[in-house]
């Protein structure tokens, strides 16, 4: 951040608090039950996403462009919940609401990077489905492992740069209105509104950021499925249409789980505590459900996990036999 400041101007002094107070869940009755639920969600998320990544990594049959995107989604889900849930539990369950200025910006950066990458991963999977169904003859030629690696890498670079700019702009603010952040994490919108100098650049960023990492990805996904629906409508038999549509059900489930709660929460006029809980669920729930959906709805991953389980069982049986002999 010092490099960011020196690049924009020298000898400028900004008022920065030594710490912030995260107050999002304070005052909500029986909130400890919700913390227990968050911990349960986190454990399931870690186990499920690790299992999906292990299955894809160890099974050579799953090293296809589609499963490169699925692996990255599982990785992002794992890192995203690991960045958010333990810190949220530390703040509220163990009563450590104070967080230093630098730690807060770091917390913000990683949370926004991983949340943003979830949406862009859905874009990568949408592209894969469009090419597989609408342009099947070009799929093997255009959607290669190298292409998918490059696409995912470009998304990572894009998100890191965008979030780094948004975070860097916060360092140009004098934060003297308050030190209380009324959210469950270091929320960008909550922080820049604490400024007592001009926060127009951060305000503009707060409008551009959702467009880049939420609305444009959603638009791309919707247009993708419009083209897929049009292509399937031209297929001769109902059976072939259903077969083609079935390859999209897992991805459509992920899209619904990610985007619908966000859209509902943003549209509903609900009281602040309910809004904070809804937004926290929107952040931590999809990373738990995504791998479960892929296991339940994707035969290849089911088979791979069965093979992996068989390998582990055989390995432990052999070790036990060797120890007895």
TrEMBL record:
GO terms for cellular component: plasma membrane. Coiled coil: none annotated. Keywords: Cell membrane, Disulfide bond, G-protein coupled receptor, Glycoprotein, Membrane, Olfaction, Receptor, Sensory transduction, Transducer, Transmembrane, Transmembrane helix. It is found in: Cell membrane. The chain crosses the membrane at residues 12-28, 34-58, 67-85, 105-127, 147-170, 207-228, 249-270, 276-296. Pfam families: 7tm_4. Signal peptide: none annotated. Its main location: membrane. InterPro entries: GPCR1_Superfamily_Member, GPCR_Rhodpsn, GPCR_Rhodpsn_7TM, Olfact_rcpt. This is G-protein coupled receptors family 1 profile domain-containing protein.
């Amino acid at each position: 951040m010092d490099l960011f400041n020196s690049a924009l101007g020298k000898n400028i002094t900004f008022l920065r608090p030594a710490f912030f107070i995260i107050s999002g869940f304070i005052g909500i009755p029986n909130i400890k039950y919700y913390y227990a639920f968050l911990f349960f969600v986190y454990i399931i998320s870690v186990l499920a996403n690790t299992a999906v990544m292990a299955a894809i990594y160890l099974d050579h049959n799953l090293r296809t462009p589609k499963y490169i995107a699925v692996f990255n989604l599982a990785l992002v889900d794992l890192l995203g919940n690991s960045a958010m849930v333990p810190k949220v539990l530390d703040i509220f369950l163990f009563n450590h609401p104070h967080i230093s200025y630098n730690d807060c910006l770091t917390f913000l950066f990683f949370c926004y990077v991983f949340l943003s990458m979830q949406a862009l991963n859905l874009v990568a999977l949408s592209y894969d489905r469009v090419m597989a169904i609408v342009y099947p003859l070009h799929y093997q030629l255009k959607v290669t492992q190298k292409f998918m690696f490059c696409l995912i890498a470009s998304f990572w670079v894009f998100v890191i740069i965008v979030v780094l700019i948004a975070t860097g702009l916060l360092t140009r603010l004098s934060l003297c209105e308050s030190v209380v952040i009324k959210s469950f994490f270091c929320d960008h919108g909550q922080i820049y509104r604490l400024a007592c100098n001009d926060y127009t650049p951060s305000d503009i960023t707060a409008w551009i950021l959702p467009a880049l990492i939420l609305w444009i990805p959603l638009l791309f996904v919707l247009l993708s499925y419009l083209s897929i629906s049009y292509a399937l409508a031209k297929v001769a038999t109902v059976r072939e249409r259903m077969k083609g549509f079935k390859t999209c059900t897992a991805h459509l489930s992920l899209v619904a789980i990610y985007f619908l709660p966000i859209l509902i929460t943003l549209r509903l006029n609900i009281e602040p505590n309910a809004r904070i809980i809804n937004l926290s669920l929107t952040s931590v729930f999809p990373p738990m459900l995504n791998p479960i959906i892929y296991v339940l709805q994707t035969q290849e991953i089911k088979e791979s996990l069965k093979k992996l389980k068989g390998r582990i069982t055989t390995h432990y049986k052999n070790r036990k036999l060797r120890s007895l002999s």
